[in-house]
Amino acid sequence: MPFELITLRFYHGGVIKIEKKGYKGKPYHGGRVYEFLDVDIDKLSCFELRDCLKELGYEPGQCVLYANLPRSTAMLEIKSDYDTTLIAECLCHGDIFDCFVRYSVADPVLVPPLLEYGESGVGE
Question: Which CATH class is domain 5-103?
C-alpha cells in the first residue's frame, strides 16, 4: 500500500476570527504561513502537530490550534489525538491540511530594572 502524503499548512502570528456558526471569508488575518511537506496521514497525531508548533517557535501549552476540516468551512479546535484521528479519516493523498494558531501569553516575564545605570552590581 503506497504512502498517503499531505501538506500541513500553519497560519501563525495573526488573528483568528471564528464565529459559532462557522466563518465567512478568511478565518485568519495577518501573520505568516509555513508548510510542512510530505506528512504521512497515518502518522498524523496531536504530538506531531505540537512538534510543528515547537519548530515554528511556539510553546504548545500557550497555543490553541484550530483546523479547517477538508472540503468544509467548519473549524475544529484540536484538543486531543481523537480530534486528529477524525481529521485524518477525511484526508486524501495530496490534500492540504490548514491549521490556525492562536497564541496567548500566560504571564509576562518581567526583568527588574537596574537600580543604578551602568553598574552591574556583580562582584562588588
Answer: alpha beta
DSSP letter (8 states) at residue 116: S
The whole-model pTM stands at 0.75
The DSSP annotation for 46-58 comes to: HHHHHHHHHHTT-
* Whether 6 contacts 95, CB under 8 Å: yes
Give the 3-state secondary structure of residue 42.
helix
Give bridge partners of residue 6 from the DSSP assignment: 39
Every domain of the chain and the residues it spans: 5-103
* In 11-113, alpha helices (H): 46-55, 81-90
Tell me the mean pLDDT in the region 57-78.
84
In 97-107, which positions are buried (b, 16+ CB within 10 angstroms) versus exposed (e)? Answer: bbbbbbbeeee
Q: Sorting pLDDT into bands at 50, 70 and 90, what band is 27?
A: confident
